[in-house]
Write a structure and sequence with these properties.
The protein has helices spanning 9-19, 40-52, 64-87, 90-108, 112-125, 128-135; strands at residues 24-28, 31-35. By secondary structure, it is mostly helical. The protein has a two-stranded antiparallel ribbon with strand order 1-2.
Amino acid sequence: MEEIKQPSLIDEQELMDINDDAVMSVPINGRDIKIGYIKPYTCERLTALLVKSDIKTSREIKTEFDGLKLMKENSKRLHQFAAYGILNNFFKIKLWHWIKWRWMYYIDEINYNDLMLLTSIIKKKVPLAQYMTAMG
């Protein structure tokens, strides 16, 4: 039988940061982007984006062109997701979301690894109770 190991101090600190809603800093393109507690309107917009995006699975890919089109669409959705998480305010989202995600997609050209790191941190910051309320 395998012995259960205690979590490391780094793992405990990460758990405490998530529980305490501490601001996490993500280095992207030489800048530090700070992600804090995700507010209810932002959570609602993130959920709507995921539900309405109609993300296709790899089983629906029949040709190479379909695969490239799928990658392009998913990349746009990830940039929109990241823009919602960065703005994280009703008025900022209403005024700036349309330009923020396009700026990140076309001009900043954030690489996929940084974008996935940012997306995973945003998902960690979504309060579970509000997420379940928004989904149901």
